[in-house]
Amino acid sequence: MPVYYRKRASLGSGAHLNISKSGASVSQRVGRVTFNSRGRVSVRILPGLTWRIGGGRR
Questions:
Q1: Total of domains in the chain
Q2: pTM (two decimals)
Q3: Residue 58: inside a domain, yes or no?
Q4: Which among 20, 24, 51, 55 has most CB atoms closer than 10 A?
């Protein structure tokens, strides 16, 4: 099984700094939609169910 490393720090008002093995990124949540600095958009359909658009894995 692979091991993943992630750390998330709040920057206030729905913004987060995300640090992982592949680098750092910033995300901003607006309602049910989250925009990532790597070009990924996530839409929260239900709690625990998210639809990701774009910005594939690196």
A1: 1
A2: 0.72
A3: no
A4: 55
